[in-house]
Amino acid sequence: MSWIMTIPASNPAPAPADVAPVHVVGGGLAGSEAAWQLARAGIPTVLHEMRPARKTEAHQTDGLAELVCSNSFRSDDSENNAVGLLHEELRRCGSLILQCGDGHRLPAGGALAVDREGFSAAVTQALENHPLVTIARGEVAGLPPADWSSVVIATGPLTSPALAEAVRALTGEGELAFFDAIAPIVHRDSIDLSRAWFQSRYDKGGGKDYINCPLDRAQYEAFVAALLAGEKTEFREWEKDTPYFEGCLPIEVMAERGPETLRFGPMKPVGLIDPSTGRQPHAVVQLRQDNALGTLFNLVGFQTKLKYGEQVRIFRTIPGLEQAEFARLGGLHRNTFLNSPRLLDGSLRLKAQPRLRFAGQITGVEGYVESAAIGLLAGRFAAAERLGRQPAPPPATTALGALLGHITGGAEAESFQPMNVNFGLFPPLAPPDGRRKVRKAERKPALAARALADLAAWLADPALAA
Fold first, then answer.
1. Which residues contact 288 (CB under 8 A, 6 or more apart)?
2. Is the CB of residue 301 less than 8 Å from the CB of residue 266?
């Protein structure tokens, strides 16, 4: 059983007695974070989660903030990586998701990976224990009732059909969707470590945070051929034209783009030396620890739409995985998102009905941390509004502000697609000391330093105190 870190309930200044509750629909990362931020501000909050009354294609439990794809929150480097910077900003904003993530961290080199069961249990426990949060189990079918004067909709990529249809009818927008794929998980004791070895790329972090399975040229070419020939999941007629998100392509879709694509993607061998040969392998499959006990490892970047039997057959051709036992096989789920630059205002309210805010992946952000970030902002904005304050967005120079700005107007509405946070969304730096431009090596640390300084000023504003 995973150890659960207990998050103490905050002691917010009580809201006026006549403050009506804010309703948060969806108990994923974004909804959980939004509910926490509202409660921290002293606002009574009802968190609605349809599981277990209504299941989804991807979830396996009824826990809040369940991680259904990878267990990694990606890079934790706050100086050189925009995701790592977003981690740090969320920590400084009192994020529940980052508190629980840090408390259930697993070895993953320079990344923040978590024990998915312990993480979800900690988030669930924190919200269940908060005196201002009520968790209501059951589906919100269609638009929330009219007497819910403030609602945060954070239903994620698996929004129920009834609610999705109601939102489409309200906005007049056609549905935008893509497929998000799930990577398989393998039992650690079924991996042959006489053929595989522990090493982080370039020996980062602890230096031995990943299991590496090497392939020579012939093995790699045979593996790619098997992926291309393998039997795939058939799509329904109405799903066939749905595009994939580039950041989470199935492994076999990447293989279709050319024989070397995987060697420059999830199977790149750079920074790794096979101890049995003393050389860099032609290609490599990496597995990352998936639970605190170290008994489960997931195949990094191996999201797939292969049928289950094909997955077992093909993945067991990987050296070291010949006898692999799978705790979970890969799969697909449909992902739906709004055309947010056209539909949402700067505080994430639906222009057609401002009592409704949206948060998380449904707004067109991609990734666990990005979803939590938009949930945090939606919760803060809704709390400010309930307390009679004007919601103030974070500076555009911060990771939070850059992400918010992108989805609420910075992106082109006509070509809007889900986006991870990245430094390309940040305003450019002014060159120092009269130079014509900032040196490349200085750019990311300087952007990060500016972001954290501007975030501190934003958080110090008395009007934003929560």
1. 71, 72, 108, 113, 209, 210, 297, 298, 300
2. yes
Rounded to an integer, what distance in angstroms lies between the CA atom of residue 419 and that of residue 365? Answer: 5
Give dist(CA 144, CA 355) in Å, integer. Answer: 10
Query: What CATH number is given for 181-334 in this structure?
Result: 2.40.30.260
Could you tell me the two tokens for 96? Answer: 């529940």
Residue whose C-alpha is closest to residue 190's, from 327, 331, 1: 327
Please say whether the beta carbons of 376 and 93 come within 8 A.
yes
Contact indicator for 337, 157 with CB cutoff of 8 Å: yes
Q: Under CATH, which number does the domain 22-173+338-464 receive?
A: 3.50.50.60
> Phi, psi (5° rounding) for residue 442?
-90, -15
Give the strands of the sheet with 326-328, arranged side by side. Answer: 197-198, 210-215, 283-289, 296-299, 185-187, 326-328
Instruction: With beta carbons less than 8 A apart as the criterion, state whether 362 and 159 touch.
Output: yes
List Cβ neighbours of 260 (8 Å cut-off, separation of 6 or more). Answer: none
CA 369 to chain centre: 5
Question: Could you read off the pLDDT tens digit of each residue along the chain, which spans 466 residues?
Answer: 344 555 655 555 556 667 899 999 999 999 999 999 999 999 999 999 987 656 555 556 678 999 987 899 999 999 999 999 999 999 999 999 999 999 999 999 999 999 999 999 999 999 999 999 999 999 888 899 999 999 999 988 777 778 888 888 888 766 566 666 678 999 999 999 999 999 999 888 778 899 999 999 999 999 999 999 999 987 666 556 667 777 778 899 999 999 999 999 999 999 999 999 999 999 999 999 987 778 889 999 998 989 999 999 999 999 999 999 998 898 876 778 899 999 999 999 999 999 999 999 999 998 999 999 999 999 999 999 999 999 999 999 999 999 999 999 888 887 787 888 999 899 989 887 767 788 888 899 999 999 999 999 999 987 654 4
Quick check: pTM over 0.85?
no
Amino acid at site 185 = I
**For residues 84 and 423, what is the distance between their CA atoms, to the nearest angstrom?**
11
Cα gap 151→348, rounded to integer Å: 11
Q: Where are the domains of the chain?
A: 22-173+338-464, 181-334
Burial 277-289, CB ≥16 within 10 A → b, else e: eeeebbbbbbbbb
Cis? peptide before 52, omega within 30° of 0: yes
Q: Helix, strand or coil for residue 220? A: helix
